[in-house]
Amino acid sequence: MSRIDLLNSALAETFGDKLVSIKTELGEVTAVVRPQDLLSVTTALRDTSTLRFSQLIDLCGVDYSAYGGVWDGARFAVVYHLLSLTHNVRLRLRTFAADDEFPVVDSVLEVWSSANWYEREAFDLYGIVFTGHPDLRRLLTDYGFVGHPFRKDFPVSGNVEMRYDPDQQRVIYQPVTIEPREITPRIIREENYADVDLDKKSV
Length: 203
Hints:
Blueprint: H1 3-15, E1 19-25, E2 28-33, H2 38-47, E3 55-63, E4 76-84, E5 89-96, E6 104-106, H3 115-126, E7 129-131, E8 160-165, E9 170-175
Parallel strand pairs: 2-5, 6-7
Antiparallel strand pairs: 1-2, 3-4, 4-5, 8-9
């Protein structure tokens, strides 16, 4: 039995109906869990002898609002990439925030300490709030930044711009002055561009 088969079997045996779904594609296993079960599931993923996912490799937010053209599920998800050094296998764990307007997910910082800055990044870029995080503040954008730039509805030009004002001798924030525009590339068409005169074509 392969490592993937053993992992799927261990997940099903350990969690049962706590997992919404388990999917194997391209040699990778993805499990989906309800947000209310996240902490119990992640703790068991770390501590159960048949799993032993001791390392959180990555954590990221996802905005599914425009996924596949039409998306009818919850908008915001948090994805955890886990590694079991004991069993040499990886797992992708996903949970969806229940509220699209104010997405909230439990922090897994007590399970994996490496989640600290990853959760801050997801909060900064997607506006996902992690309950129980001791220092949830922006990580990549400025403290005065308005909005969350990785959301699908965030304007390309942003909401405010920052510049140095020589009169006030300090950095100031002001509304964006760049006018949004759509650039259409110039297309040159020539008559009979692709025609070939077979009589004059040399071999």
